[in-house]
Specification:
single chain, alpha/beta, Rossmann fold, 5 helices
Amino acid sequence: MPRVVSGKYKGARLNAPKGEKTRPTSDKVKEALFSIIQMHLPGAVFLDLFAGSGQIGLEALSRGAEEAVFVEHSRSVAAVIFSNIEKLHAEKESEVIVSDVPSALVKLASAKRRFDIIFMDPPYAETAAIFKKTAAFIAKNDLLNDGGMLIIEHSTDTVFEGNVINLTLIRCCKYGLTLLTFYNR
């Protein structure tokens, strides 16, 4: 069962989707991720793609992000995100979009939304193809603020190229069979 590691919701147990539709981020990877981005969180607008239980976006809110937008394709999994948001009383700072990621990004771009941090944790088997399309769309449509970060959680089997349009590869961190790859605008 996922939990909030630090911040105003520290220790809160989150509901997790039933079955094998999602792969929750381990506490070890989550703690490392937030240790790296902690200084960028206060006041940040955070986008959580392939959100699953919503634990990453909720951790961002707990640690000082101003707003979190969650994108999840599955209605049943999105229901878990809604329940976790309610459990933490974080409705005012949260928005859930029940949609596939490409459609959600089109919606966000047409609304002229911009984010300070975009986190994506796509299905590992599809990460490379999804990343290229998603990163290109994010860059071309200015969804990431100047100085913002795009972070991908993926398998160590997938390694990414350097720069993608106006995004620069700045860091890769390995945790067991998981890699966190950071791009900066």
